[in-house]
Amino acid sequence: MVPLQELLWFVSVLAVAGVVAGFLAGMFGIGGGAILVPVLYQAFTLLDTPDSVRMHLSIGTSLAVIVPTSISSFTAHYRRKAPDMELLRSWVIFVPLGVIAASIIVAGASSGALRGIFAAIALLVGIRMILNRESWKLGNDLPKNPIRAICGFFIGLLSALMGVGGGVLNNTFMTLYGRSVHQAVATSSGLGILISWPGLVGYLWAGWGNPALPIYSTGYVNWIAVVLTIPITLLMAPLGAAAAHKMDQRQLEAAFGVFLLIVAARFFWSIV
């Protein structure tokens, strides 16, 4: 049995994580995973979860939480007619294929490797968002296939390896091709749906039967964390979406970049 005091502390940490993750899901279109993963990683230490599965469990649980959070965030942005629906339709196959590939990789990856991937991507994207200039463009419009399909595949792959809803990478992709950060954020909320559903199934499969998992876990998903976090994130996501539309583009980019650098620093520290 888990001591009551530790369980209550675990619940408190998850509640705070849900508030922040839900708000950021709406504001940045990131599904909340970029904040949930590092917080869950720390929270699972309270239950003495072995390091060998702690990062895997944090990512899988994050993807499970992102399923309803992304739907809520996308609905809020869709009401404003902000997402690029043509881009989302073109990625319906390629993004999930990348997520499936990530699930296969996760089945054999170490905890340190997953933390390194998370930190490296967050660092690069964070620096790019903070130092961003309008002249930093690869084109004036989004590329056509096959380049678009390849980008969708890798966004799905890397996002599933990080446990995020796609906004971390898609925001960069779209702004480099001349789209506004507001449209990128709104589109990323829809991308989270394409990533979280196959990601949830993939992480359930990848960790199925692992004896090191804590109580109430199925594969690399802990249902205590899911049940506690989802209601809070659903309440906060619309507030974050409303806040995003009140900020100008440069403010949103800078805030997103600072946030990613903080997350990257935390995970690099855990690897050292």
TrEMBL record:
Cited InterPro entries: TM_pro_TauE-like
GO cellular component, one term: plasma membrane
Cell compartments where the protein resides: Cell membrane; Membrane
Membrane-topology annotation of the record: Multi-pass membrane protein
Domain of life: Bacteria
Membrane-crossing residue ranges in chain numbering: 7-37, 57-76, 88-107, 113-131, 151-169, 189-208, 220-242, 254-271
Protein's UniProt keywords contain Cell membrane: yes
Alphabetical keyword list: Cell membrane, Membrane, Transmembrane, Transmembrane helix
Keyword Transmembrane included in the entry's annotation: yes
PANTHER family per the UniProt record, alphabetical: MEMBRANE TRANSPORTER PROTEIN HI_0806-RELATED (PTHR43483:SF3)
Family stated for the protein in its record: Belongs to the 4-toluene sulfonate uptake permease (TSUP) (TC 2.A.102) family.
Entry protein name: Probable membrane transporter protein
Organism this protein belongs to: Hoeflea prorocentri
